[in-house]
């Protein structure tokens, strides 16, 4: 894939997306924004570096919310990282993942996987695109606000050192669609962003993961 | 085409004329540098939001009673969403909230639209009060139980029950009144919202003594009195389109603006307690929809009762 900077990429993406794909995107973004009264708080203006948006993960709608809340030019070059096992389960899911969100699908099972997931995501960043990454590794179904972060984000940050990590916190989505329920209740939802960060030169894995978790938790104030 | 010559239509013509003047004045003030920066931006945002709100109201008034009922039902959804967002409700309240949004709210407006006042009056204050906590109690989560069920009930009362009294006015049949009840809804909204705006204007220009500094740092005695009295004069001046004599119109306007003010104060106290400045961000420059509806919420039921039971 040859991509020369973000502006050019946006054009290609708009041109190549088929009409059903664009309609599905508009419908999703429109529904998310109308139902959730979704808005971004403190989103840092786009810079020269590709971004890894890292957020808390409490519901299936998380990446839709984070994706929908971004301004359109940023949204079109932002790809959620998701589990291949779930999104390749049916043709419809595969179409949504590949076409609508242009998800970066990774194999979560270390025993069976052929490719290195960190390398897969790093390639996307090297090509100048942004990704949405849930560093907890799985949905948080506990009462704790955040699970201990997996080491994936640390390895990714080293594999793609030009990328900046933007911590984000998705507010109230856990109340809109709590675990075990299928009916969302409309509440005002927002995504709060923090200042971009990177691992320091000699920072250990654990120190970095703790620093990142703290940066994320600092955004979790429910008052919006 | 009579709807374009009705008294409520002329209320809107007056409002649009007023908005044009307000927009011109604001732009002149900004161009001459009398106001600038954030104040100017907020002023233009507010005026623009008024254009949208009055434009939407004018449109739904032209479309008829069903459109008005549907519009206020949607207002209720947005308001309840704002209210529920800042409550203590937790996972165990999810089903009760779902019932509130998807069953109670549509049912209340259906009852209003079908004109079954007895059920519309009892549904939320009695049956939701009795039955909605039942949905929650079987979840077995007892922590803050009273707080949580009370908050849900309050949300329904404020955002659904009270708001539904506005379209309910349309169903009234007032003997000896030559205009349709649309006119009365327009009169109520005009007087109550004018009181809000005038309280802001009087408060900004003459306000000295804070009324309730711990609840609302911007409300002043001067603003309150000036706003309520001038809005009541406006209501009195429009007595011709109401079923009231001029002094009755002034008195009713005073009552609804008083309740409107109290509503704003009570809703401010809730915001203050929950640590938020505005209910939401739906209305540019104004905050959430509840920030705009709070005074109407508390005055609409009283106004309906005055009309329905012929207190004057």
Automatic annotation (TrEMBL), chain A:
GO terms for biological process: phosphatidic acid biosynthetic process. Pathway: Lipid metabolism. Pfam families: Acyltransferase. Residues 51-173 form the Phospholipid/glycerol acyltransferase domain. GO terms for molecular function: 1-acylglycerol-3-phosphate O-acyltransferase activity. It comes from the Bacteria. The keyword NAD does not apply. Keywords: Acyltransferase, Transferase. CDD domains: LPLAT_AGPAT-like. InterPro entries: Plipid/glycerol_acylTrfase. This is 1-acyl-sn-glycerol-3-phosphate acyltransferase. The lineage of its organism: Bacteria, Pseudomonadati, Pseudomonadota, Alphaproteobacteria, Rhodobacterales.
UniProtKB/TrEMBL annotation, chain B:
The chain crosses the membrane at residues 12-30, 50-75, 122-142, 154-172, 184-202, 223-245, 251-270. GO terms for cellular component: plasma membrane. It comes from the Bacteria. The keyword Transmembrane applies. Keywords: Membrane, Nucleotidyltransferase, Transferase, Transmembrane, Transmembrane helix. One of its GO terms (biological process) is peptidoglycan-based cell wall biogenesis. GO terms for molecular function: nucleotidyltransferase activity. It holds the Pfam family CTP_transf_1. This is Phosphatidate cytidylyltransferase. It comes from Paracoccus lutimaris. The lineage of its organism: Bacteria, Pseudomonadati, Pseudomonadota, Alphaproteobacteria, Rhodobacterales.
